[in-house]
Amino acid sequence: MENSVKQTQEKVMHPKSGWLMLFVEVLLFVGGILLFVFSPQTGSDIVMVAMIVAGMIVLIVALILLRGLKTVNPNEAIVLTLFGKYHGTIKKEGFFWVNPFSSSFNPAVGAVAGLGRKISLKAMTLNNEKQKVNDEEGNPIEIGVVVIWRVVDTARAVFDVDNYVSYISTQCDAAIRQVARQYPYDVSENGDEKSLRGSSVEIAEILRKEIQGRVEIAGIEISEARIAHLAYAPEIAAAMLQRQQASAIIAARQKIVDGAVSMVEMALKKLSENNVVELDEERKAAMVSNLLVVLCGNKDAQPIVNSGSIY
Known about the structure:
Elements: E1 16-17, H1 18-38, H2 45-66, E2 69-72, E3 76-82, E4 85-90, E5 94-97, E6 103-104, E7 119-120, E8 124-127, E9 131-134, E10 140-151, H3 154-159, H4 164-180, H5 200-215, E11 220-232, H6 234-273, H7 281-296
Antiparallel strand pairs: 1-5, 2-5, 3-4, 3-6, 3-7, 8-10, 9-10, 10-11
């Protein structure tokens, strides 16, 4: 899918370890406190004021540098901006120090619990609410989809869409409608085409590709998309159930008739080969009729013993 929006290129940062800077921070805080403590003991007002000012400056610098300490957990990332521009992304887990004037940015704050301004790189599940759509034949159906997805490009996820979590949910809804109206709910009488119910594996792959094409701009990878709920809408469910029952009855009757004809043919052949009885055409017709009634009937046949002639 071609997108006219200019895509942001991800810049992976390799920041310095934060442990050295943490040690420097401790020294600065201790030094600033000591300047405040020993300033009254100098005996000179000018030196005392100078030490107090120096202590304040040291503490302010320490507080500013403290903002540069960042912690990144496994399968998490931090997107940093510096004065309104994209500064880079930290994907490596650990404890780091970055430019203290840079700030983490995530438009989907609160969408994933416990992350804050960090971005999760884990595989996440989107359980899309079931919605009513029309299939290829125009029948209203209810369909729900489960999508497994993850962020692979943090820059595009953060800067190229407004909220990548709500964006993928909206695009899933659109993709479901697009795919559902291209295929019937069930196979046709010919049985030579895909259907939503009968070709679940193929439809799932088609749906995954459709969603992937729509969320490519957001730097999201769709690992799996499968139909979790599929049913006729309540207003036509009863009628469609009767239609399915009728189709099943017809298919069963066809098999019964095919089997009955084969059995009658075999019976006549055996009687003729073994010379059990000589039957003319009229007797054969009567025998075929009786056998078909017995074999194709819904109820068990009641035998009648004929002690005389069959005529």
